[in-house]
Structure formats: structure tokens, C-alpha cells
Amino acid sequence: MTVATTTETVSGTVLSAQDVNMKNASAKGGNDLNNNFNGMDDRQGVTEKDLDDYLHNYNKWKQSRAGRALQQWIADYLGMRFDAEIKWKNVAMIGGLHLTTVVMFFKYVWYSTLTTWLWGIFVGGCAGLGVTGGAHRLWTHRAYKAKLPLRIILMCFYCMSGQNSLYDWVRDHRIHHKYSETDADPHNSNRGFFYAHVGWLLLRKHPECIKKGQLIDMSDVLADPVIQFHQRYFMALKILFTFIVPSMIPWMFLGEPLYLSFLANCLLRYVLTLNFTWLVNSAAHIYGNKPYDSRIRPAENKAVSIVAMGEGWHNYHHVFPWDYKAAEMGHYSVNVTTFWLDVFAKIGWAYDLKEPSKELVSRTLQKYGDGTHITTPIGNLKEVPEQDPLKSR
Ligand SMILES: [Zn+2]
Ligand SMILES: [Zn+2]
């Protein structure tokens, strides 16, 4: 069904109504939040002075004297220079978490029961869906609409991932799409794999990124009562869903000692969830082919798609960020998120699922693709000599 009430763009081109398909289109608005909004607009009425004031305030943050001295020491004696101040608190937290996880994994976690492992996979899957189906496809890109029960479920699942607040996540990801691979991109992959993966959380943001973040229109996100609730109780929800619920259940109902349950769920599972999300920003921006647009860095990466529940088809996603599948093909084995969104669409909790028309995808890949799309004829075949019909007799 084609009901395109929305105007979208692909590489700067305004699309016609036939270019956008919507599945399960709603008869009328209902609880729609910003019906035609695609998450990529600028806020209205922000002046240069507003930005300067904000930046001035932001710049009041300074490294401690000890932190500055340590960074200087690293530069002088180890030769490692960074182009921004190191956030030592984040280094200690993220570094400490990873180090402890590796040590504890070999010492204890390895010995937890199969049920605890399965529970960890289940919690990891829920957390992943909260990030991919919630923070990413729903709140950032408005690729579909969700009724209240689904928004609540996705918000709770998102809290299991233990990441930044939803507001910060959405803003950062909108900047990432709008200013990919520039100074304004929070995890600019031109600064290397490590920076795009986790380094961006350990260093001070580039001023251009802070400035552009202020310009992003977040009114739709702030208007959602589910996000308002999340924002108000962010830390309590994070502690509850990332640490308490995942570690209490195996202890209370599955006979696992509390310490093992905690280590398996609050360390190993947490660290894996974080890294699987980060791989989309690092690996999927560096390794893979580009069937839809060879001019951009994001690429198609199957391995990332498997661990990130369908988010590794990143060349496609950056060309059509408003497609609810975040991929052209909907094979569920490498796009678990799409499977769940289709299930929720069946029961009516997800609707107005947006997709580009087949013609638009085909036009785009023929014009800009690198020739690796499955439908692209293999040019080399022309060089294979045609079989001589006389000889084959
Ligand atoms: Zn990206
Ligand atoms: Zn995206």
C-alpha cells in the first residue's frame, strides 16, 4: 500500500509519493508523534549567539590538573598523542569494566550453568532490540510508529543495554547521519577504527559536534511521554534493568549463585552488548562492499549484522535511513530486529512501517552503487568466450 504522506530525501533528492511505501498504514493519526518527521531536520530559531553561549558553557569543563599531567606524560614518554582531552573518568569506567570482564570470564563466568548462559543470551537479545528497534529505528529515524505498549517495552529493553540516555543516543545518531565522517560526526570513522568504536566516548567531543548537536530538532523525542519518563528516571532505570533484574532472576529462580549470576549478566553480557553496538560505528563504517552508494564510507557487513541484530547493512542504511528494515532484504536470520518488528506489526503495535519502493532502490544502486549488488550483472561474464554451438555437438 502506498500512502506516502511524507517527504523524504535520498542523497539530497526529494522523493515522489511513489517512492515511499508504507505497510500497515494507520487510518488516522491516533497517537502519532510528528507524523511527517524523519528525524533529520534542524531546530527552528537557534541563533549563532545561542550556539556560542552553549559552547562557552560547555567549554567550562576542564580536565583535572592530574588528568592533564598524565595525558602530557603519555605524550612525552609513550609518544601517544590525542587530538582532544582524555575523559579519564570514562577511561577508568569503560577500561575497568572490560579488564574485569576478561579476568572474571576465565576465572568464574566460564563455570556458570547453561541456563545462566541462555538467560544471558535472552537478556542480550532484549537489550539489543531496545537499541536497534527502539533507540535506532523508532526514535532516531521514525522508520515506523509504535503504540504505547510497544514503546514502553522498547524503552525498558533499551535500559537493559546500559548505554547513554535515549535522548543523548538519538541526538548523537541523528548528528552521525547528517554529518557522517566529518568533525561533527560523534564517532567520525576517519579518525580510525578505535575512535569510531569506543575512543569517541573516551575523548572530549569535537566543538563542531557539540554545536551541530544543538541544532538537531529533538522536539519529537521530547514530546513522547515514554521518553520523558525515561529521562526523569534514567539512572534508576539503568541500574534496575542493566544490573538488578538480569542478575537477580538466575539467582532467585535458576539456582545460580548470586556472584556468578552478577558476573555473567552485569559484566560479560553487558560488555558484549556494548561492543556489538559499537561495531556498527566502527567495522560497518570501514569493512564491506557498497552496493547502494560507493561515495560514502558505511558498508554492508554481514558479521556485524549477525551480532548487531540486522544493523550491519550499513551502506543501505545510510542511503535509506528511514527504512524500518535498515536493510534491503528482509532475511530474518541476519536481521532479527526486522523479524520482531514484523511480529509487532501483525498484532498492530507497530504500524506505518516505511520502505522505499523497489524502483527507487534499483535506480539508486544503478546510479551510485559499486556494482556488487546481487542484481548487478557480473561484467566479467562478457569476457568469457561464448560457447561455439558447432563444437558442443
Ligand atoms: Zn553509521
Ligand atoms: Zn541510523
UniProtKB/TrEMBL annotation:
Domain comment in the entry: The histidine box domains are involved in binding the catalytic metal ions.
Family statement drawn from the similarity comment of this UniProt entry: Belongs to the fatty acid desaturase type 1 family.
A molecular function (GO) term: iron ion binding
Listed transmembrane segments: 90-111, 117-139, 233-253
GO BP terms in the entry: unsaturated fatty acid biosynthetic process
Keywords: Fatty acid biosynthesis, Fatty acid metabolism, Iron, Lipid biosynthesis, Lipid metabolism, Membrane, Oxidoreductase, Transmembrane, Transmembrane helix
Highest classification ranks of the organism: Eukaryota, Metazoa, Ecdysozoa, Arthropoda, Hexapoda
Highest taxon above the source species: Eukaryota
Record domain Fatty acid desaturase: where: 114-321
The protein's name in its UniProt record: AGAP013071-PA-like protein
GO cellular component, one term: endoplasmic reticulum membrane
Listed cofactors: Fe(2+)
Localization annotation: Membrane
Organism field: Anopheles sinensis
Xref: Pfam families: FA_desaturase
Principal location: membrane
Membrane topology: Multi-pass membrane protein
